[in-house]
Structure formats: C-alpha cells, structure tokens
Amino acid sequence: MLLIQCPYCDDALPELEFAYAGEAHIDRPQDPSALSDEEWRDFLFIRSNVKGVHAERWRHINGCGRFFNALRDTVSDRFVTSYKAGEPRPDTSGKEPAQ
Amino acid sequence: MTDFRVEGRGRVNRAKPVSFTFDGETYRGFEGDTVASALLANGVHLMGRSFKYHRPRGVVTAGSDEPNALVGTTRGKGRFEPNTRATIQEIYPGLTTESQNKWPSLKFDLGAINDRLYMLFSAGFYYKTFMWPRSFWDSVYEPLIRKAAGLGKAPTEVDPDHYASRYLHCDVLVIGSGPSGIAAALTAGRAGSKVVLVDETAEMGGTLLSEPSVSIDGRPAWDWLAGAMAELDAMPNVRRMTRTTATGYYHQNMIGMVQKLTDHMGDVPEGAPRERMWRVRAKEVVLAQGAIERPMVFDGNDCPGVMLAGAAQTFLNRFGVLVGKQPVVLTSHDSAWYSAFDMADAGAKVVAIVDTRESVPQALQNDARARGIPIHLGHTATATKGRLRVAALRINPVHNGKVGAEKMLSCDAVLVCGGWTPSLHLFSHTKGSLDWDAEAKAYLPGHKTEDVHIAGAGRGLWGIAAALEDGTKAGADAVRSLGGSAGAATFEVADDRTGSGITQKELPTDRSPGKAKAFVDFQNDVTAKDIRLAVREGMKSIEHVKRYTTNGMATDQGKLSNMNGLTIAADALGKEAPQVGLTTFRPPYTPTTFGAFAGYHKGAHFEVTRKTPIDDWAEENGAEYEPVALWRRAWYFPQAGEDMHKAVARECKATRESVGIFDASTLGKIEVSGPDATEFMNRMYTNPWTKLGVGRARYGLLLGEDGFIRDDGVIGRMRDDLFHVTTTTGGAARVLNMMEDYLQTEWPDLRVWLTSTTEEWATIALNGPNARKLLQPFVEGADISADAMPHMSVVECTVAGFPSRLFRISFTGELGFEINVPARHGRVLWEKLWDAGQQYDICPYGTETMHVLRAEKGFIIVGQDTDGTVTPEDAGIGWAIGKKKIDFVGKRSLDRPDIVAKGRKQLVGLLTDDPKTVLTEGAQIVADPNQPKPMKMIGHVTSSYWSEVLGRSIAMALVEGGFDRMDDRLHIPTETGGTVTAKVTGTQFYDPAGERLKVE
Amino acid sequence: MNAPVTSFDAVSVAVLPPVARFNLRIAPADLAVASRIFGLTLPAKIGEGARNGDRAAYCIGPDEWLLHAAEVDQSAIMSGFDTARAETPHSITVLSDREIIIGITGPAAIDLLSTCCPLDLSRMAVGHAKRTVFDYAQVVLIRDGDDAFRLEVWRSFFPHVHGLLEIGVRELAIGL
C-alpha cells in the first residue's frame, strides 16, 4: 500500500484514501461539436500508456475529496511528485522518484 | 523415553512436562519444546514422507526453513491444519499431530512404489508422461494426479477461528532478534526512536540461543540476552513481538507481519483471535534475518537422521536434545566443527568430522583431536545406509578430482553443513538488487530501493562480535536517517566462533551419478540429476530450470535448495553462478493462513452490508432480501405458503388495485446547489433544465462522454439554485464522483457545490390508486390534490409531523408519491402509513415487484436493460435529449459513426407465443433457430417477468436493428435444448396512454 | 436515542446522541461571512477544528466544513445562511441524519481504531478531524483528547463499523 502525497491536504496519506482517475492533462474540448470524428475518438480513447514517468489523476476520495495530478513511475510504481488540478506538469527531469 | 534429553542443557521448562500425540502415540516433552525437538528427545527422526517418491524423511532444520517435518495439527472440530512445520509448532497439553503423505502408515507406505519408478518422475515428468492417449487426460490422469499431488490434505470444514488485523506505525522496524537485531533495537531504542523488534520464534535471541558458550561484555551469552531483553522491555518506545513473521515487504516500507497468538496454547481464551496480520509502516527497516544453512548434496542425503549441523546445535543448546549419540559431521564450513564439539561435550560420541576441504584451520583440528574426534579432510560422501533412519555414511577420499576407496562410518545421525546463505527474501521483495560476491560465493544485498539497512549474517558477516557491531551500526544509521543521533554501542565478545567455508555442487562420487538420489529440494523431491537433465533438455535460465524441475517451488520457496540448485545448474551450463541468475523470492516468506489475510472479513463482515432505516421492519415482517450494490434490499414479502412467484404476483396486484408501500431509501440523492446549478445540470444531463420550474421534477438521463447511458433518476428543482438529484442505487457514488470530476477539473469556474444526501433521507414510495387517499391526512403545509400537485412535482411540507421533501412521481405507472423524511424518522413514518393503510389493504412490496411493475410500463433499469454500450436512442428514450442544447456530457459521441450506424442493438419488447412461458434473463436471441451451430446471436433478453395484471409473460431485449423488426418472430434457444418463439413489440406493455396516473 | 456501550477498562465504544450537523461549502475567501453567521471562527486549514460550547467546525476539504450545533439551533442556523446566500454564494446542507456518531474513549482507543484505520493516529492533533476510512467505510474521525475520538459514519455503514468495533473491543479485552 502506497503513501500518496495529497497537494491539498499537504500530507502523505494511505493509498486506501485515494482513487485512481486516469491519465492527466487531457482537457475536454471547449466545443466538442467542432471536432472531427477522429479528433473526438482520440480525446475519448487514445491514451499514452507510458512506461516510465506518467502524469495521472488521483482523487483523495476518502479524504478532502479533491482531484489532483501526480507523476508516477509506472516501472517502479513510485511517485515523483503530486500537484493541484489545473497546474502545469512540473519539470522533473533528473529528479529521483520520491520515497 | 527421554533418552536423548541432556541434563543441564536447553531452555525448556523441565518443571512443566507436556504430553502430546504424534500419529496416535503419546509423547512427552517440556514447555518450550517444538514438536520436532520433543520427538527428537524421544529418539524419533522419521516425521514424514516425501511429496513425490514417498521416501521416509526426518527433520532437517530447527526453524522455519524446514522442508521435511511437515505435520497436520488438530485442535478439535474444524481446526485441522496441514503442513505445519514441526520445527515451529510448539507443543501444548493435548496437541494432536499426524504425519503426512503416507498410507497406510508412516513406516510402511505403499506410495513409496513411486521411489522405484523414479525414472517416470524425473524433471518435466508431468509434461512427458501424461500426453497420450489424449482422452485419458480428463478421465484418468488428471483425477489421479489431483489425488496424488499436494502436500498434506486440505481441511474440509469451515475454519471456526477468528483472525485479527492491526495497523502499526513506527520509526524503526527490526526484523530478526539475533545479536544484530537486538543490537540495532537497543541502539535505536536508546536514541528514543519508536522501535518494533520482531522474531518468528517463541523466544528472542536467534543464534545466541544456540551459542551459550559465547560471552558478551563479560557475561555469559544468555545472561547478556536476558539483560538486553529487560532493557528493551523497560523502554516505553520499544515493542517486542515474538511468534511474529514478517511475511512480505511492500512499497514505502510497508511490511506485512503475521503474529501467531494461540497456536502454542493449551487453553485458548474463548473468542481469542488465532493470528493477527500487522500492516506496519516503518520509517526505517533493519533486516537482521541471519543466514540459512545449506545441506550437502549426495546420494541418500535425505535419509532420516541426516540433518543440518547448525540445527543439531540448536536442538542441543536451545532444547537440551541430542539428535544422535553417534553422529558423523559432514561439512565444507567451519561452523559444523563447533556443532561437533558441542555434541561431544554433551556426551555424544562423534564418530568423525568429514570435511570436503583439504585445508581446515589448525585450531579446529586441535580442538577435535583434544576431544578424540577422528578427522577426514578432503573427503566426499557417496551414500547413506539405512531406510527409516541413517545407520552409516559412506565416505571416500578425493584427491586431484579422483574419488578413492570407500569407507563406511556407522552412525545414528549425519550432521551436514554446505555453507550458509544470507537470508535476503524480504530484501528481494523490495526489488533490491542482489549482487554476487565471488569471495563469499553468495548473493549479498546491493542497490536498495527502500529505507532499509541489512545487518549481520544477512549481509555475509560471520560471528557474534561482527553481528553485534553491524547491528548497532544499522540501528545508528536508521536513527540518523530519521534525523536523530545515535552512537554505535560497543560490545566485548569472548569465545566467539568465527569461521568460513566453501560452496559446492553435488559431492563427487565413485558410483554412477545417474543412479544417485542426491536431493537438492527435499520438499519437491528434486535431485541434482533432475537439474542436470533440465539443462541437457535446453533450460538455460534458472527461471526455466526452476519451473521444469520445480526446484524451489514448494512451500519453503527453496530456502535450502535455491543456492545448491543454482550451483549445480551453473556447473551444468559451464557458467559462473551470477550468469545463470537467481530466481525471485516473493511474499509470503513462510506459508501464511488465508485467515490471516482475511482478518475480520468473514461471516457478517465478509463485506459491508448496508441497511436502510426501514430494514428492521422488513426483517420483522419476513422479507427475503437481495443484494443491490452493497445494500441488502427487501426482495419480496412472502406470506405463509407463498413462493416468490406467488408473493410477487400478489404484491403487484395489490399495488395496481389499491396501494403498495416500498422502501426506496437506497436511491442515491445528491444536492446540487449554487448560483450556477442550472448551468451545471445542463452540462451534465442530456435534458434541458433551464425552464424546469421550482417545485417541478423531471426524469434525468446521464451519459458518459462516450454517449452511452450511465445513470438516470428523477430530479426535482427545490429552488432556483438547488436541485434534488436522485440516482440509481448502485450508481450513487459513481455519479457523485463523475459530477465532482467535471466540476473540479473541467468547470472549476462554476459556482456549484455537491453534497450526498442519500442517507440523510429515508424514502418511502406509495403507489396505487389509493396512494393519495392514504397520504393526504398526514400532509401539512402542502396541497397534494391532483390539481395542486401534478405528476412530476415536488413540495416541501411535513408528513406525520416530520419535515419532508414530497415527490409526486411514479416508477409503476400508478399514482405515486415518494416521501423523503430525515432518516431517523423513516421507520416511524413507515409504521404510521402501514397502520393507516390497513383500510386500503396496503401491501409492502420489494424490489422484485418494483421491477415487474416498471417493466410492465417499459421503464428501463440502468445496468439491467443497459450495459454500458447503449445510447438513449438504442434504449428508446431519445426524447430525454434536449435537442436544442449545444453541449452536454456525451453529446458529441451521439454523432460518432458507430453510434449512428444501422444495425445497433435496440431495446424492444418480446411477447412469447406461449403466454405462460417466462423467458430467462440473459438468454440469447437468434433469427433462425434452424441455422447450423454456432448460431448468429442477434441479441439477448434483458428483463423478463410474469405480469399478473396482463395475465401473461413480458420481456425486454436488446436486439440488432430491433426497431425495424416490429412484429417479427424471433427465437430464444433454451438451456434444455428447446426453442421459445416470441414476437417483437414495443416496451410499454401496460396502460401505454398513462391513464392510470390521472387518479383524482 | 439509547446509547449502547461496549467497554472494558481500557476502551469503551458508545453510540452518541445525534446533534445538528451541516455540510458547508463556501469559497475560502468568504470564510469570514460563514464564521459570522455560525458564531465561530472557522478553521482555514484542512484537518483543523474549532469549538465553542455546542458549536464546532472542522475543515475537511479546501472549501468544505463540517459544522456541529445543538439540535434546537438547526433551523436558526439554516435561516442565517439562507439570508446571506444571495450576497455570498455557498451551499449548506443539513446532514443531521446522514451519519451516526460513535464515541471511542480509553487508553486503548488508538489500538482499537488501528484495527481498521490505516492512519498514523499518533500524528493527529487533539481537536482535529479528518475524513478517512475505517475498513471499507468512509468516516470522519475527530480527536477530542489523547484517548478520546469520535467516528462519524454513514447510517447504513453503521452496523458494519460498529460490529467491527465490538469485535475489536472483545479482542483487546482478551489481551492477546
């Protein structure tokens, strides 16, 4: 069971309080009707499936209730960092996964 | 009987004799004995039969690494446990144990015929032997293999025991309480850290318990140990836990530990948990698990009486038991020499020390000669004599690789030592790397992935002084990592027994190696020959060799066999060990009961059972229940002599004719509140909300972004800026999560807040022509007449004096109300309505009747009539889409090519030609019943019931192009081989014009 | 409501009488308005609590507060917020019946909670509250003292949670 840093609670808390919510930084288009079928398909279904550091969404569902983003290494299953929804993906090049 | 107990030795309590049974015979031991030590004290070495060849086997180790001495233990009904290690199970008065894998008896076992047929059972025999004829697999081979395979026999009764769980948080977790673990715990404890020290056995001390001759800080080892324990116990920041095995090491220093609480007790307190699973989060971990002694691989090395030299030393010093009176010691490591000395000093006549090495420290040789022990250096062992107990060891000199003339050494025990393997299983769980140390010929801890420190023999150090020094250093390092400061303690150790040794493959022999039964893995009956065969047959990776031979795959996970297997495989491949690799250790470290994993989750607490405020009433009134999501819901209310069919028919009739009462409390309820609530609702739901007046309600349909139906429910407008949203029972949490997701991450600019009120309200539904008449007298503060309160409206008022949100809605097609009152009043209100309803023959109904009544009206149930691939158009509820809306969740997908394509499955009604036949839900539908198999299935039945009001069966189904098949006849093959024919219809079977809602 | 109590000397578990409970959602910038209406300065940081007599407020999300008050004050508090709504948008929802409150007191309180709660409770300050899990149930846990906690659990989960606590009390009483 992982400890996950909630950027709203500013605390590392048990994984049991959290729920995974898919890949991060996929914004719902402002005007979906303007998208071609292919563009809409990509928005709906196409995900990066990263091997390595992955930007993903979590919700502190059994805590403060907030959705937030995190960078997690999918190989080691270790979190690099977490940040609030709406914030840009931090540059973590060269940074070691957090313990 | 206690022939082999040595006076003045051991730590067992001689004042407390304990009787127990093994295979029906009563034996006596002492408090503090294990089954193994007590049996050995009685001269019993034969404790089991092997898994494959049913060879007689004796105890090999004194600890949790034991592969052979596995017994079944019994403590009354339902409390049988197979494969208990006799070296771990403590005896208590009345303990009943039995040997395994034997028939009819341990000493005479017919299964031992397998031993003669061993050629059939060599590596990969499963893959080779049972291939032909094909038809034999199901009828002959598989049943036979199932019967013969497996260690011990599985319990057949429900486990009546309780199992506990606990979370624990600490600064420093020290695993293993030998000298290095104790030193680490003392050091961290003295520095004020919150320390937990655990050991899998009943007593702390580890090696110190087997080495009483050492002195530490001027005190005999055991006095020093007692002092250390007292000091630890006096620290409030230190917790000591015995009989506690760290079974798995997970991310971020989470360690799973299983504590055995009662298996050692004669009298178990009533209701006491048997084991407790500890989930420990430690800031720092110190692994001080020591090293595991390796057997030597030679023909007959599995004969009872052949055991590890270190184990013999432990049985002597910890339990006061001589494992033999005339032992031979066979070794490649200095440590076994000390075992020989201790045995001799305790009165055994040590027949000889046979060392495979040509050169051994002179001091050891002097000490042996001083005790009159003959020494054979540079010798190999080539056979044992004896079947149920070793009687002699055949040894031969080896010179320049040539095996010389044999010599037989008569003996009653052979004490072997093939070196020591650092115990790094837990470290391996963390994916820490194990690096080959060419000098130590061992894998030692390399790159670490966790905040962990490895101390003592676990990283290849030898001797008690080194262990203490390394342990205190690990403890101090851990404290420093925590930001504290601690100095390493110093220890003065005298009479330490340091030493070294070599690692080797199977011992050389003058006989045919192909005939040698030189066991590598005792538990899975894998021999050196099997490993060489696997390599010859093309297995090049150790992972392949492991799976082909099953070496290391038994319940001991190769604690004794992995290194010997690797050494032999490397030799066969002509490579160095590190090039062949190492198999991965996985949790659990030792076999763990399912009970420990399950913890409290059994019986009533197997999972959450949610109950409504009216659940008690239903139970008192004989309801049958069905699970819906985590809830249990009243399914139907059978009266005397009624089956479900009759009860549901009666409930349906009563509701349609007068009035039925239904507990709808499980429906999800969400308060959507804020200045932008309408905009939010417009974006989430397919329907338009802007023009919905305060006090009115509307059916809401929620899609996923993919355009498929996710949920539905009636939504009432309480204020301009407040909606009372209802969801399906199972969808409540999911819908709230989805709404929060959009609100927080896509539309954070909207001023809207969401609150779950599912459980704030108890919800009682009244349906039927007399519903208003029944309800009216209870209502204050609202006019619920047909004119004042039309269908699909909501009002705040009081009902029976309780504040209420009262909806006029209908999921049955009848005049209907849903009364929401604060949950604590739910049952009281129900009973008031129940009493008043007697004049109308009020009928309580359950979910089954609710399903029938709604199906008669063609109302869908999301998740039953839809399955995550159904659009509003597919379900025939395209009317719920706000056609003028620019956007809502899922709208864009309704134009996707696949969604607008022809031939989608659409929800239609089915009326069977025979009105009495009720279709099976889930049944597949075909257009032509006479087509060859496999038939093309064009849909399936989603809902199917007997309709009492229509006097016939009704069904709904998802059918390819269903809307274009109206009045067609389709066919539903049944499980009994027949076919039912049904006509395609619309889904509104009853009162399609909705006349029944218009009750004045 | 009757208050069934399960206890031995080290810990007791009691069902506490209901109080008026509210879920308040408001922009943190408007917290002063809410504090004025409620008559108690609402804490600004997640996890913190404030208490004065019958009134208590716990911050359990960045814009979410759990408010406690005497039952007789429930409608007055709702009216107070109602009046302010047009000026200061917010959401206040009565939840007095959603949860049942369980009191857990005694020197073994943390041991008992640790049977099913994964948090390191030694890190939780007295007077603080947080939403977390107890076994499979979401709960709000309030720490009233070194040895005193309250657990607020959704009504339908109460039988499960209370049953586990009773098992835990028996286990602790046996002392193994």
UniProtKB/TrEMBL annotation, chain A:
It comes from the Bacteria. GO terms for molecular function: sarcosine oxidase activity. Transmembrane segments: none annotated. GO terms for biological process: tetrahydrofolate metabolic process. Pfam families: SoxD (PF04267). InterPro entries: SoxD, SoxD_sf. This is Sarcosine oxidase subunit delta. It comes from Primorskyibacter flagellatus.
From TrEMBL, chain B:
It holds the Pfam family FAD_oxidored. Keywords: Oxidoreductase. InterPro entries: 2Fe-2S-bd_N, BFD-like_2Fe2S-bd_dom_sf, FAD/NAD-bd_sf, GcvT/YgfZ/DmdA, GcvT/YgfZ_C, GcvT_C, GCVT_N, Sarcosine_oxidase_asu. Residues 516-599 form the SoxA A3 domain. GO terms for biological process: tetrahydrofolate metabolic process. Residues 905-991 form the Aminomethyltransferase C-terminal domain. GO terms for molecular function: sarcosine oxidase activity. Residues 615-885 form the GCVT N-terminal domain. PANTHER family: AMINOMETHYLTRANSFERASE, AMINOMETHYLTRANSFERASE, MITOCHONDRIAL. Belongs to the GcvT family. NCBIfam families: soxA. This is Sarcosine oxidase subunit alpha.
UniProtKB/TrEMBL annotation, chain C:
SUPFAM superfamilies: Folate-binding domain (SSF103025). It comes from Primorskyibacter flagellatus. Pfam families: SoxG (PF04268). This is Sarcosine oxidase subunit gamma. Gene3D superfamilies: Heterotetrameric sarcosine oxidase, Probable tRNA modification gtpase trme, domain 1.
